[in-house]
Amino acid sequence: MITMPRSECYVHQTTMWILQHLKTYSWDAKALVALAAFTLEYGNHLYLTDASTSDQLVNTLKQLNQIQNRKVTVPVTDLVGLIMEVFQHIHEWATWSGVGYDTLEVPSLSDALVDIPVAVYWIITSIVAATGNIIGVSDYSLSDFKERLSLVDSKLKEHLKLGKGEIDSVEEYLKRKKAISNPKDIVDFLKLLIQHNGDNLIIYDGNTKSKADIEVLTEKYVLVFISSLNEVEDEILLLNSIYNRLQDNPQEVIKGFKKEDFKILWIPVWDSHDQKIKFDHLKNKIKFYAVEYFSEVPGIRLIREHLNYWDKPIVPVLSPLGEIMNDDAMDLIFQRGIDAFPFRKKDGYDLTQKWKWFWDATKRVNLGIQVKGDRYIFIYGGGDKKWIQDLTLALEKTKRHETILRADAIIEHYHLGKDEPKIVPRFWIEIESKRLKKHQDALDCEIQDIVKSLLCLKQDPRGWAILTKGYNVKILGHGEPMYETLADFDVWKEKVLQKEGFDIAFREYHETKVKDTNVRQPCEVINVDNNNSINGNVIATIKCPNPTCGRVMDVSYVNYKCYHHDIDTPQNGKI
Questions:
Q1: Which of 108, 214, 329, 389 is the most exposed place for a label (fewest CB within 10 A)?
Q2: d(Cα 470, Cα 149) in Å, to the nearest integer?
């Protein structure tokens, strides 16, 4: 640089020679080596110029370095300051690039790479020109070099600014990802998903239409509803219904879980910043909690990768410790409603197994029932032809009703034995055979209760009906209240659109008709054998299997038979 001839073309040639000489170095190292060489001359000049002239050694050094022939002007000083600033930006880029961030996560670092060689070129070029002016072999207009260097630096700073935001996002994600693998509790887990750093996290209470602190979810089980704001009205309607059912007898304990310990929290994922009006409209419909903010969810990447949310609504179920009990209970809730409480995958499996035997029985006797999706099916039968006819007409009228069509509900019905009367006894034999099998675990006990209820329905002199939604059996009903519920459809038809499904609205009105029914259906009389007694002497307590009754049954008598080998005909007795 010191021996460079005068002329701007030589500045370019010298710069290219330096770059060629340092071709094995990284871009930031090229700039650093050139800057170090320049610093030697520039630093000596500044030091010796300011040093005392009374020192003989200093004067000798000044002569050797030709200080008297060199000058550092204001343009040189300004250019050097800019050179240092640009070099710091290059060094910052090199430091971040060396960390090894994914280029898909921090694309600005790759974008900056386009401008880095240009920036290094103009740093070295500016150094060469400044050196020529200092030693007096040239008199370049350094403002031109400063202008070029400023231009490339402005582009580089923009890339670094974007890169800083991208890196902060990555680092924040990594910190949250590490923490969420071992959360302190449910509130800590949720904060990692939705809390901006340092913010006081306030949520919206859809029941009271007021604000609430996230701490209200402490020690609670939380159904986390994650969705966009598009076409979620059905899901909101469904979860409002679940909320209402959780409020019914909140102290009730089912499978070891108390209903009042379960809460629902909605985390809306915004597609754009102009959806506030839509969110305000939807939040006025909900009864549960919701996260209320108007920017991207802080933990959106964590929500996608850890909870597997990809724009389709999901409902992970979390324990008070922040553990995932079910990664997505949405389909389970749609299919089973509150019957799926506490909404674990196991609960869905148990419900399926609870009725699998029933559908297997219908296939073995070849009932010909075609179960399609979530269509509603009424299976009915009985000995009262007038009741059968009335129920059939009521079903036909209901399935074609405008409200049912608006609700996109499909209702089908199947009269047991209509086309083949011999099927009826075969069907009941299949049901009876299930009662005779031994039961060992809790699921078997539930199945036995169902079998007893079905056999009780069989005794209804009018008839009986079963309502299913797909393979999910919803109601086992006696003849009179089932018919009256259908006959009064115009009374409760609006509930079909307000509730999460036809079956829920049907069940609610059916329960009122059961209570209003004056003439109760006959309860089952069970012949008690030795298996239902204690030590063969004391009769055990048995509850009535009639779903409308359920009271403890009185013991009126016990049948017994004597099969003594000396007597040809068994002797019957009664207590």
A1: 389
A2: 72
CB contact at 8 A, 329 and 349: no
In one-letter notation, the amino acid at residue 275 is Q
CB-count exposure of residue 289 (10 Å: 0-12, 13-18, 19+): buried
Q: Which tokens belong to 446? A: 């539930």
Quote the CA–CA distance of 531 and 330 in Å, as a whole number. Answer: 43
Contact criterion met (CB below 8 Å) for 57 and 119: no
pLDDT in tens, 220-261: 999 999 999 988 998 998 899 899 999 989 999 999 999 999
Q: What single-letter amino acid sits at 31?
A: A
Q: Which of 187, 177, 178, 192 is nearest to 305 (CA)?
A: 177
Residues 6+ apart with CB under 8 A from 535: none
DSSP string, 263-308: EEEEEE--SSTT-HHHHHHHHTT-SSEEE--SS--TTHHHHHHHS-
Identify any residues that bridge with 267 across adjacent strands, giving them in sequence order: 226
- Residue 108 — very low, low, confident or very high, per pLDDT cuts 50/70/90? very high
Residue with tokens 């909140």: 250
CA–CA distances in Å: residue 265 to residues 203, 212, 382:
9, 12, 46
Q: What letter would DSSP give residue 22?
A: T
Mean residue pLDDT across the chain:
84
Between 77 and 86, name the one with better pLDDT: 86
Residue 423 has φ and ψ, to the nearest 5°, of: -65, -30
Q: How far apart are CA 509 and CA 502, in angstroms?
A: 11
CA distances from 326 to 105, 223, 253 (A): 30, 9, 19
pTM: 0.72
Residues 6+ apart with CB under 8 A from 479: 382, 384, 387, 391, 460, 462, 463, 464, 465, 521
Give every CB contact of residue 48 below 8 A, 6+ residues apart in sequence.
58, 61, 62, 65, 67
Residue 68: its pLDDT value, please? 55
Q: Are 504 and 472 in contact (CB under 8 A)?
A: no
Q: How many residues does the chain have?
A: 575
What does the block give as tokens for 77? Answer: 């000083």
Query: How far apart, in Å, are the Cα atoms of 208 and each of 205, 220, 292, 530?
Result: 6, 19, 15, 57
In sequence order, the β-bridge partners of residue 314 are 226
Query: CA 270 to CA 293: how far, in whole Å?
Result: 9
The 10 Å Cβ neighbour count of residue 538 is: 9
Cα separation, 133 vs 71, in Å, equals 8
